[in-house]
User: What shape does this take?
Amino acid sequence: MFKKLILMSLLLGSLLLAACGDAAPAAEGAAAEPASTEPLVISAIPDQDPEVLQRQFGQLASYLSEQLGVPVEYKPVTDYAASVTAFRVGDLDMVWFGGLTGVQARLQVPEAQALVQRDIDENFHSVFIATKASGIEPFEDIDGLAQLKGHTFTFGSDSSTSGRLMPQYFLSQAGVTLDDFKGEPGFSGSHDATIALVESGSYEAGALNESVWDNRVAAGEVDLDQVQILWRTPPYHDYHWVARPDLAERYGDDFPDKITQAFLSLDPNNPDQKEILDLFGAEKFIATSNDNYAQIEAVGREIGKIN
Assistant: This one.
């Protein structure tokens, strides 16, 4: 009996040691996990058709969830201003902003950071378009914008960088004011809508994001017998991902760096990842910083979009 008790004690001790040995690696592995597994909520300014955006950011959310080890959810917003407001109050963790909305958001959320942009966003352009029936001819110099005087004209969203802010800036450089148009300028709400309104003749001319124009033309979705490109603007910084400053506290100090690396790691040789890059109209993503948008902030203050 005594021998049996000794054997049972030795067996129990071995089991306890084994259990302790297994616990150490588990604790070490747990330390590498994000501090929180609550969803990371992403969104984007609604600059295109909602179905296009749902596909684009839905696929990106799946990729980021896999790379970051936390659930990632895409939450659409109704307009540009709503994206800034939702970011400010914390309903959105990370947003694909245009240059202007990104500056507006960061001014309202101190220490928010611009993380990455597409390769095309460090040298982005707007395009001016017009109906062929308007008689406005394509031009190669900014002074050609003077032809728009006396014609009807539409911008995109009121808060769009490529569809309003920078086009208005270049118009002012050419000596064209909003009062020089025939009637009040329009605000279509999106780049797709600007193309449609000019193509239909509702407005004689308009300005929009060059990437959307190029993509729609390549897809055969623009009637080039009715509407033509007039001019591409000089380059400026535009779209970028902005993250809230509390992500490090919620998910770990290295989480913003993990986000950046996930975007930089998108591989065009991987079919699924290439599709994401194609939906963004990019060959790759590159790192960016808040300082790159100083010009956008200055222009925004100049035309009254930033107080």
User: Anything to note?
Assistant: DSSP finds eleven helices and eleven strands in the chain. The radius of gyration is 26 Å.
